[in-house]
Amino acid sequence: MSTIFSQIVEGEIPARIVYEDETTVAFLDANPLAPGHTLVIPKDEYERLNDVPDDIATDLYATVHRMVPVVEDAVDADATTVAFNNGEEAGQEVPHVHCHIVPRFEGDGGGPIHAVAGDRPSLADDELDDIADDIESRV
């Protein structure tokens, strides 16, 4: 599988690359949600975060960590929303792990990350306890 992001990494498709190292690359989103909207990807293709090896995940986060203040400064943003869509049902459109760094500005009309899921579930304490126990047992 060769995603559009892999084609960018290979230089087959032009992109506004703003940072690159051995394992990651950052470039401006071609369809930005805000000025400076940047994507950070691992150079190798991994469809979901669950597929990314630990060492590459460390590199990926290091690049995100490096780029957030740089992007904010470059476009004089008040803040950023930093997010991964992990799987098609979560809104992931390209099956290649990518982190969105979306600059945010006062009055931009955007909402918090909590607005992404629509209606919130009503969960009882025992349901929350069961979910927490199940997650903890799988770590």
UniProtKB/TrEMBL annotation:
InterPro entries: Histidine_triad_HIT, HIT-like, HIT-like_sf. Residues 4-111 form the HIT domain. GO terms for biological process: nucleotide metabolic process. A motif (Histidine triad motif) lies at residues 96-100. The active site is at 98 (tele-amp-histidine intermediate). Residues 117-139 are annotated as: Disordered. Residues 124-139 have a biased composition (Acidic residues). SUPFAM superfamilies: HIT-like (SSF54197). GO terms for molecular function: catalytic activity. This is Histidine triad (HIT) protein. It comes from Natrinema versiforme JCM 10478. The lineage of its organism: Archaea, Methanobacteriati, Methanobacteriota, Stenosarchaea group, Halobacteria.
